[in-house]
Amino acid sequence: MREVDRRSKHSRRVFLKGAATAVPVVAVATSVAVSIEDAWADDSSTLSPATMKTLLKVARDIYPHDVLGDSYYITAIKPWDGKAAKDASVKSLISDGITRLDQNARDRHKVPYVEVPWEADRVVLLKEIEGSDFFQKVRGDLIVSLYNQKEVWPRFGYEGSSAEHGGYINRGFADIDWLPKA
Amino acid sequence: MAKFDLNDSSVVVIVGSGAGGGTLGNELAQKGVKVVILEAGPRIENHDFVNDEWESFSQLAWTDARTTSGTWRVAKDFSGLPAWIVKAVGGSTTHWAGASLRFDEHEFRVKSTYGNLPGANLLDWPVTLAEMEPWYAKAENKMGVTRTNGIPGLPGNNNFKVLEAGAKKLGYKTVHTGNMAINSQPRDGRGACQQIGFCFQGCKSGAKWSTLYTEIPKGEATGNLEVRPSSMAVKIEHDTGGKVTGVVYADESGAMQRQKARIVAVAGNSIESPRLLLNSASTMFPDGLGNSSGQVGRNYMRHMTGSVYAVFEKSVHMYRGTTMAGIIRDEAANNPKRGFVGGYEMETLSIGLPFMAAFLNPGAWGRPFTAALDGYPRMAGMWLVGEDMPQETNRITLDPRVKDKFGQPVASVHFDDHPNDLAMRAHAYKQGAAVYDAVGATVTYPTPPYPSTHNLGTNRMSEKPRDGVVNKFGQSHDVKNLFVSDGSQFTSGAACNPTLTIVALAIRQADYIAGAMQKKEI
Fold first, then answer.
1. How far is A93 from chain B (nearest CA, A)?
2. Does this complex have an ipTM over 0.85?
3. Which residues contact B238 (CB under 8 A, 6 or more apart)?
4. What highest taxon heads this organism's lineage (chain A) (predicted)?
5. How many CB pairs (< 8 A) connect A and B?
6. pLDDT one-digit tens code per residue, B477-493
């Protein structure tokens, strides 16, 4: 069978170019992973960097795929900052939602949400707010903003548009080789 | 190409250009009848289709406002999107998968066969399979259906091979790559299927039959057919004698126009067609045009549907190739011993990663959900499509609050599953999972119905005027020169996909209309 190359083609360079154009050159030059990972959130204009970083954790906890690096999730959630800049109700939806989540985390675990160490414990916190507008909007948005990234598709073995490659008639539409003989 | 005057009252006006309207338009044009088709959506040719699920959805889907109610899960998960159908020239024949099956004999006689089922508004069709057979044959020839007219079946893709192997292990007998209106070899000026996938996003190669690039250009070539895209019908008008006289519609610029007509045929799919009749109420027809029976908008059917996806140890890549070229027909018969009347088909189905995320289990999140998506390349899938029960209370009404941009009330879609639908779905989920378990599935997912693609029954055929909206030719019981030409005229839904029957009825209706015009009956 023709397998799909599922290695990440989503290099850090591409990510920086595509999603965080305002990252200072010096941050790139340091090439220290941590500082680059942090830089994306400082790029936000309306939502605080701390809010964005918590939102990233929330996104990972809602749709956890361990094969996907943060960059895909950052691409998925970054537009919230722009939407918040345009619409005060969006800003409060996200900010207040994160504030409440952090408060619940502190009440339960004495630390903010991002510092709750186990995913299972964070999921309990998310369950508590599952019915909220904040959670539903963030989750509903992620279904498209995460899974509709073309760069994500090969990671799931999905090849996307095929017509320009002549379809699959010569590219493995019937190449399954492990079925028991009928 | 023809261009008819708005005041030309000799034309037949057809509302909608899909399987019903597009076919009727061409058939009439071939017989020398002048036709104007009003299509609500734009004209998008097949080379402009895109192999991208969400982008294609934006390009083709009917996303105008609708409201929903009822206990069906679609009302909760997709409250503004009860149906996944198309607003473009070609209608939902751009989006359909191509499965082209004939009804069984008993499926035209459901009241006689199933008896009195509490809550079900069953009625026999005023037409029989024997009467329909010659029209089915014409439809199959027109559409180039595989395994008819000497046309070979399509080759099976990976998804089919999994289905076939499981079905055979389970002892199912009738398993093949379907009766598909998709060219397995060049035919009728169109090429053979290139196994592109993306059948739902419009067939870029044109191998799949769609009125967009078959019926409509053929009709236009006669000089008797004019298609007006981006023309949304808002009201059908009538005279004091109770005959329809024309259709008021919003043109591309949004300006209201009035096309006069000798005959009006409504083919806007089972949500918009009753909406148009209800929005055409007048002093003479206070409950909606042609609605003396009170049945306009009622008996809304959407098929018992559901999907089963299964994950295996090794790769399947189900998305490669023709989406629905695979069928198990063994459960399609009526066998009440299973605990329900009617039957269902099991057909291969795949959706891409973006739609799998949206539809596998709407609203779900966390590890159980993402584990399923992680299995995507090792997934096989099938669609379950079976006969659902017509119920008077499942119904299209005019929303009392929400209006469209032309000030017309939008359609409100109410649906509750009948107990028979639920029993059938439970059986189908079990059998679907068994097919995949037989060849080593490690997990199976019984996936809930998507927004409706098969919308049926809301202007149903009946022998007696009090039981339905139209007669056996789709002609209104109340208004002689008003016809219904889409799936809304279905008296019952049968187990199989409806398009072949819509096309067969449209060919037959064209024959009837042309004859009646010649005899000056209408």
1. 19
2. yes
3. B244, B245, B282, B284, B285, B289, B479
4. Bacteria
5. 131
6. 999 999 999 999 999 99
